[in-house]
């Protein structure tokens, strides 16, 4: 089957002290240090991979739909029971060994399929790490402890004196009840540092026991990233017959086609959209984030960098051609000299259309990106109003934007409740339903088929579709 | 400008600071330099084998400024000839940028690009807090603060561990340090209490340093709550019941001083009882409200994007700011309070000093020739150590001291390796 030597070469860094070796799987959890080294039939090779791929694809689609970790857990458990069951050691099943072997093989086959590009690697690592997390959390407590002991995670339990020095008696963290802290270099737990869930001193992070799992996840992720890169480098030297390559090709294509994380417009934007039409378009079809940017642009005659980026790409996908875009921005920055505009802004606008620099065709930002990246600083107007506005500003902004479209202050408590629960996309979807009620959109229908808003362009496209349908029916043109 | 690069710019010092030792290493040779020429022509991916090469190129281009980027896996000037995959940023100082214009909502003396001694105190407070946090919490020791020439300050952290941080780790570190969040439309920009009621220890420490600043700077010196717009902003940060009460009182008496207004806030907030079963009562204790306000008005406002990515370029120290003519000089964080951006030497002043000190002989000789690391007169007869005779001297010496610390560390690390053999 697979050339053993090559596969071995891909995970040189397997730690010597690790217990699990080939043909023995003492634990349900697996760090996948060593590749499988036995005869595998082509059929096993393919089914193990395909079944695992189903689970990973479902994980990705959960991310795309903004599901919470808990919701995702429920969905995924159903899927993996079907395709990739993995029981705890206490189950004493005969199949146990077989299940774990399949898990092991599937993981390594997918590594081969997904190590080839940066993008695939990133997505594979994210999905695999999430799968590991879900399993870790559902693992039997004792078994998990044993698993943790079986590996050297290189953490030091902080002495009581150290903790006394660091943590004030009125400690801030609820986790301090259990007074165990693990000491690791802060660079190993960046996620905890970012959220200030640890105590830092001299470059060491003191991780409360409740967050211990984070160290494990980070370790898993780092381990996998490193191995994937090594695999990618070894792959060209994999002297393989023609049986495997087609399978691997198919697998990686399946992953890419399975779920599109970018919103791909059904309508490729409106033909002949011109700069003069933007104001009307904004008034009738924009979601709150873009309305806000447009209003800020008209008010300040300027937008800061990320505002231009978020709005500019949205306009591009909306169907504004490069010439019209340049005309639009030139006009919008009305207080600016031509010279300054040409020097400082022209390039950026052309760049976002893929006409400068590395000539990439940038996609418009999805809700996920708007919510998660580039937190607006003071003076910025980009971001998602549902998330980045304070409650009273959001309410007055929404009423200013949409009261002509049927949004009233009676709707506010419902919207604000969703915002408070941090379901920003649900709130945005609800606003869409209310403002398009006169076109027959009902509660719960969302942007078609019960889907919620995941992309600003999706919002605008659906809004225009509804208008077109209405006009097409020969009704009177509704002016919002 | 050309005379400034030829005779005053301390290329040697810049080199040792970037390179960490005398003989050029990848830290210098694989380092990206980007030039901004007259007319805003921008040249990226330059790299040089020696500091003399850098100087020659700078004198040839005579740029308005130049920037320093990361150390790449290959020489940046060879970028076009290597595969994309083989060209990626490897090492980079951890950098920070604080810009005074981010303080516009909380300062009254200047706005936008202007800066004066009074609002410099915001920067001074930011420097003290960040300097302390990076040293104590992250354990970094080689911090170089550089005045940006107009309205801000840069920080370069050159510890080996800081150089090696990945983008993800940089993002995490910035997240740890960032407190002021939310755009124009968000009143309350401080949301740092996760679960518990009291501040995380790192911020409690910062709060202790910032509380006196709030009193001296915000209440007394800047008198921030004098104008209606500003005190309305303040009232958005207190509970609704308190807001109504104070709004009425202050509208009747608009000229109340900021300190008195703050006292009103303290009294009212103390007297205020969180409504029972209030959803937000977890974080809405009187103490928390006060702390959050102090932080919102004084905590460092970082330009986070600069720090998050290794390939971000930042203006080199000792460049000249094109608008002000001031030189971007290193600043000692211990005396940051007394630093006056208005008194930083300008390029014209320095050239005048140079002429006054020793009129250059027509042949181009006459310099002492004993700068740091034994500067010599190059073939072109250029001056290396002329900065010694101008008011630039203390600043260059500051950079040299800093660079010596780095070289010492490199030497020790090498010695250790030798021993381990």
From TrEMBL, chain A:
- GO CC terms, sorted: alpha DNA polymerase:primase complex
Keywords assigned by UniProt, alphabetized: 4Fe-4S, DNA replication, DNA-binding, Iron, Iron-sulfur, Metal-binding, Primosome
What cofactor is needed? [4Fe-4S] cluster
In which residues is [4Fe-4S] cluster bound? 289, 367, 384, 428
Q: Which domain of life is it from?
A: Eukaryota
Q: Where is the composition biased (Basic and acidic residues)?
A: 462-472
Ranges for domain DNA primase large subunit C-terminal come to 279-459
Could you state a single Gene Ontology molecular function term?
metal ion binding
InterPro entries the UniProt entry points to: DNA_primase_C, DNA_primase_lsu_euk, DNA_primase_lsu_euk/arc
Q: Give me the comment on cofactor binding.
A: Binds 1 [4Fe-4S] cluster.
Q: Where is this region: Disordered?
A: 440-480
Q: Which GO terms describe its biological process?
A: DNA replication initiation; DNA replication, synthesis of primer
Q: Belongs to which family?
A: Belongs to the eukaryotic-type primase large subunit family.
Q: Tell me, in a sentence or two, what this protein's role is.
A: DNA primase is the polymerase that synthesizes small RNA primers for the Okazaki fragments made during discontinuous DNA replication.
Name assigned to this protein: DNA primase large subunit
Q: Name its species.
A: Dichomitus squalens
Automatic annotation (TrEMBL), chain B:
Residue ranges annotated as compositionally biased, kind Gly residues, are 363-374
Keywords attached to this entry: DNA replication, DNA-directed RNA polymerase, Metal-binding, Nucleotidyltransferase, Primosome, Transcription, Transferase, Zinc
Q: Which GO terms describe its molecular function?
A: DNA-directed RNA polymerase activity; metal ion binding
Q: Which BP terms in the Gene Ontology apply to this protein?
A: DNA replication, synthesis of primer
Q: Looking at the UniProt record for this protein, which Gene Ontology cellular component terms does it annotate, in alphabetical order?
A: alpha DNA polymerase:primase complex
Its Enzyme Commission number(s) read 2.7.7.-
* Region (Disordered), start-end ranges: 357-377
Which is a Pfam family this sequence falls into? DNA_primase_S
Q: Which InterPro entries match?
A: DNA_primase_S (IPR002755), DNA_primase_ssu_euk/arc (IPR014052)
Q: Which Gene3D superfamilies does the entry mention?
A: DNA primase, PRIM domain
UniProt similarity note:
Belongs to the eukaryotic-type primase small subunit family.
Task: Specify the protein name.
Answer: DNA primase
């Amino acid at each position: 089957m697979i050339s053993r030597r090559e596969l071995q070469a891909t995970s040189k860094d397997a730690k010597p002290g690790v217990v699990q070796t080939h043909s023995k799987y003492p634990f349900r959890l697996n760090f996948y240090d060593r590749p499988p080294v036995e005869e595998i039939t082509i059929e096993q090779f393919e089914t193990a991979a395909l079944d695992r791929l189903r689970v990973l694809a479902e994980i990705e689609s959960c991310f795309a739909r903004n599901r919470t970790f808990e919701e995702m857990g429920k969905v995924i458990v159903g899927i993996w029971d079907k395709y990739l069951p993995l029981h705890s050691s206490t189950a004493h099943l005969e199949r146990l060994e077989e299940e774990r072997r399949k898990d092991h093989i599937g993981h390594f086959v997918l590594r081969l399929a997904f190590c080839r590009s940066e993008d695939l690697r990133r997505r594979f690592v994210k999905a695999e790490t999430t799968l590991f997390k879900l399993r870790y959390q559902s693992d039997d407590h004792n078994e998990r402890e044993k698993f943790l002991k079986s590996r050297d995670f290189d953490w030091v339990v902080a002495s009581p004196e150290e903790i006394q020095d660091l943590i004030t008696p009125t400690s801030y963290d609820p986790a301090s009840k259990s007074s165990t802290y693990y000491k690791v270099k802060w660079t190993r737990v960046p996620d905890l540092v970012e959220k200030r869930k640890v105590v830092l001193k001299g470059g060491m992070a003191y991780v409360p026991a409740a967050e211990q799992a984070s160290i494990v996840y980070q370790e898993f992720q780092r381990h996998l990233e490193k191995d994937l890169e090594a695999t990618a480098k070894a792959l060209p030297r994999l002297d393989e017959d023609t049986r495997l390559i087609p399978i691997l090709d198919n697998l990686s294509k399946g992953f890419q086609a399975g779920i599109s994380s970018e919103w791909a417009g059904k309508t490729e934007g409106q033909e002949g959209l011109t700069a003069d039409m933007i104001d009307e378009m904004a008034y009738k079809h924009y979601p709150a984030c873009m309305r806000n940017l447009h209003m800020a642009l008209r008010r300040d005659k300027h937008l800061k960098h990320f505002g231009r980026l978020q709005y500019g790409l949205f306009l591009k996908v909306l169907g504004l051609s490069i010439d019209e875009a340049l005309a639009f921005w030139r006009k919008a920055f009305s207080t600016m000299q031509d010279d300054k505009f040409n020097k400082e802004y022209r390039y950026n606008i052309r760049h976002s259309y893929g006409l400068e620099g590395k000539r990439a065709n940038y996609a418009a930002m999805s809700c996920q990106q708007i919510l998660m990246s580039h937190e607006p600083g003071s003076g910025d107007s980009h971001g998602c109003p549902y998330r980045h506005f304070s409650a009273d500003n959001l309410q007055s902004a929404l009423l200013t934007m949409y009261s002509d479209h049927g949004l009233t202050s009676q709707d506010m408590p419902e919207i604000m409740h969703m915002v408070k629960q941090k379901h920003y996309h649900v709130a945005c979807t609800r606003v869409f339903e209310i403002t398009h009620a006169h076109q027959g959109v009902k509660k719960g229908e969302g942007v078609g088929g019960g889907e919620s808003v995941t992309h600003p362009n999706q919002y605008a496209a659906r809004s225009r579709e509804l208008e077109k349908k209405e006009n097409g029916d020969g009704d009177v043109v509704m002016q919002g | 400008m050309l005379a400034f690069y030829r005779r005053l710019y301390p290329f040697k010092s810049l080199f040792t600071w970037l390179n960490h030792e005398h003989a050029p290493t990848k830290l210098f040779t694989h380092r990206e330099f980007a030039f901004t020429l007259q007319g805003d022509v921008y040249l990226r991916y330059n790299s040089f084998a020696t500091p003399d090469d850098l100087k020659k190129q700078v004198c040839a281009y005579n740029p308005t400024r130049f920037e320093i980027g990361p150390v790449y896996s290959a020489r940046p000037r060879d970028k076009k000839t290597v595969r994309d995959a083989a060209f990626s940023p490897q090492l980079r100082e951890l950098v920070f940028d604080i810009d005074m214009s981010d303080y516009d909502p909380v300062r009254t003396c200047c706005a936008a690009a202007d800066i004066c001694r009074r609002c410099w105190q915001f920067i001074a407070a930011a420097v003290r807090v960040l300097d302390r946090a990076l040293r104590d919490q992250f354990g970094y020791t080689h911090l170089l603060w550089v005045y940006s020439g107009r309205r801000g300050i840069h920080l370069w952290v050159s510890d080996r561990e800081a150089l090696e941080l990945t983008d993800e780790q940089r993002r995490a570190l910035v997240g740890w340090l960032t407190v002021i969040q939310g755009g124009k439309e968000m009143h309350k920009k401080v949301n740092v209490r996760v679960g518990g009621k009291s501040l995380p220890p790192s911020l409690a420490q910062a709060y202790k340093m910032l509380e006196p600043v709030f009193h001296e700077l915000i209440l007394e010196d800047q008198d921030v709550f004098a104008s209606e717009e500003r005190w309305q902003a303040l009232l958005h940060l207190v509970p609704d019941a308190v807001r109504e009460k104070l709004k009425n009182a202050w509208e009747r008496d608009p000229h109340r001083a900021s300190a008195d207004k703050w006292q009103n806030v303290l009294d009212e907030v103390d007297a205020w009882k969180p409504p029972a079963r209030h959803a937000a009562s977890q974080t809405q204790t009187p103490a928390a409200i006060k702390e959050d306000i102090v932080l919102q008005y004084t905590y460092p406002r970082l330009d986070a994007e600069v720090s998050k990515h290794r390939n971000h370029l930042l203006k080199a120290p000792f460049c000249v700011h094109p608008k002000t003519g001031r030189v971007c000089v290193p600043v000692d964080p211990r005396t940051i309070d007394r630093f006056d951006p208005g008194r930083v030497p300008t390029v014209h002043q320095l050239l005048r000093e140079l002429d006054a000190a020793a009129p250059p002989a027509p042949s181009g000789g006459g310099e002492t020739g004993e700068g740091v690391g034994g500067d010599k007169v190059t073939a072109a007869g250029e001056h290396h150590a002329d900065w010694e005779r101008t008011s630039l001297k203390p600043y260059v010496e500051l950079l040299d001291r800093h660079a010596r610390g780095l070289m010492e560390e490199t030497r020790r690390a090498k010695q250790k390796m030798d021993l381990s053999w």
